[in-house]
Amino acid sequence: MKTFRTTIATLFAILFILSAVASILLFNFDRRAFDAETYQQAFERASFYNTIPALLAQSITTGTDPTQQPFGLQGIHTETWESFTRTLLPPDVLKVVGDDLLISTFAYLNMESDSIQIDLIPIKTSMMGESGAQAALVLLNSLPPCTLEQSAMIMFGMFSGDQVQLCNPPENVQPMLMPIIEGQMKATAATIPDSLTLATASLQNDPREKLATARLLMRLSLILPITLLLTLTVLTVRSLRDWLNWWGIPFLITGLITFILGLIGAPLLRTVLENTLSAQMPAYLPAFLLDFSGNFAAAMVRALLTPVGIQGIILMVIGVSMAGLGYYISRK
User: Which member of 37, 80, 151, 213 has the lowest number of beta carbons within 10 Å of its beta carbon?
Assistant: First the structure.
């Protein structure tokens, strides 16, 4: 009878280890993957906002039909577009917009809001300020030099609204052009809405309800290993030494497996996350984000697996302490 009970208890111990590892992963995924702060930290580690100007410049020069670019700006090098973007939209402006978008996105996913909106006011403010005019000068300075006649045509065209051939005006003419450039940038910014709605909740068959159910199951997954552990206790524990051994060893093995997953599980999870991002990337987002999906996936995996590794170490310490104390009692 004792042998049978020990065999059954060993089976429950193995099931506890497997279920505990799975529930730890699911619990951390639920806690971290649906929190805007996790993604803000991932963006920070991957220098995402500092990378956007270069990626956007590359997208303009390689992913856009040259005939669709503004008149007179065809053939501008990638480096010039990057400098233009960095001047117009520095990382601090992009971070404000990005953080607001993340908060709005996860408020929507957590059913705290019925829409995802991106706030465009920081971008409009930057366009209407000195940085907008300076960004326009970056493009003009990259063009061939203007003659006086061309400079006059630019000034007349900007006043009249006619399309003109852009060029690089002389330095002594640029101060006269600055008020006109600033006025044009302000007029352009005025046509941009203050916010843009990216998604709205569906009145029927809202997919967020399925997501809420899945997250509830993730949180409830902790019940299974706890139940198995209590069953194991009823079957085998007859003394303090039994309790220390039958809890300590499973805790130790669970912590070791969890720590290993947190340490070396990044490549596999990164591949899965990167493929998911590439496949599920909404069509309205810029294509250059696909080029960053690898770096973003790596930063996300780090944010998700770091607490898993720490929790594994804690379980190992608890397991070693309990098993060691049980061994000490048995020796005594």
Answer: 213
